[in-house]
Specification:
Elements (H helix, E strand, L loop, with lengths): L5 E3 L4 E4 L15 E6 L5 E5 L5 E4 L5 E5 L7 E8 L5 E7 L4 E5 L5 E5 L18 E4 L5 E4 L6 E5 L5 E6 L11 E7 L6 E6 L4 E5 L5 E5 L10 E3 L2 E6 L3 E5 L5 E5 L27 E6 L5 E5 L5 E7 L2
Length: 310
Amino acid sequence: MSEKRVIGSASHLYEVEEGWGKLPGGLAYGYTHGICVDAEDRVYVHNTSKDAVVVFDREGTFITSWGEEFEGGAHGFYLHRDADGVEYLYFADTNRALVVKTTLDGKVLLEIGGPDRPDLYDTERRYVPTDLCVAPNGDIYVSDGYGQSYIHHYDAKGTYIRSWGGHGSEPGQVIEPHGISINLRGEEPEIYVADRRNSRIQVFTLEGVHKRFVDHNLDLPCSFYFFGDEVYLPDLDSRVTILDKDDRLITHLGEDQQAYKQQGWPNLPKEYYRPDKFSSPHGVCVDSHGDVYVAEWIIDGRITKLVRQK
């Protein structure tokens, strides 16, 4: 019997469930970018292959796959229960410069292209959305992480409302706003932006007004997953970070401060990877049991399940 691999801190211990989520024959991941879990604890893996959405049950049994239209452009991935009580998937497609809303089985319900802002975008200044989130009122916020570093605000039908941000490090400015999410832990909803190349989180009101920075214990934060009073962040520089309700560090999971310094990273020789260490975490989610699922930015994909012990 192999030895259990347990990582985390005194309050957050996890056992690595090796071999979780095996793909059936004929399927192979591209870069695994995003990962979500629905109310039934089904796990959705978003990757750049022709099977851009792969679905498992929580035990890791393959259910289905779909999403050929996202091949090569799979990036931002968000699951939200809308006001109608139904869960939907939202995508940010970097290749097609599209935001897409679908049912859980892939029926397209909404597409949003780039904003009509010739002052921000032209043939030289590209729009490349990397993530999105949905506010309690249904409004949609999109982060142009690989383009011009703006946040764009739409209503639930995709009608443009406003933009803010721009490249820089001053309050309200961002450099590579890679991930975006809604924080519902306080008295009023807030927008959290993974201001990745500034190595910080920037917090805004729903109208785009800067409120504060979170800039401790972060390196290259990619995105967010809120679970109870905590927030889980995949940090591309080789760890997953958990913060408490006040955004103070609880623990880092699977930290490997040598991985991102290796030649050829993130695509390292297979013998380098270890089950209890991360190389390039890009997406994270948490199921109803507190188990954590991590997707890494690796050319042929890597998914890790961490089973909560305490």
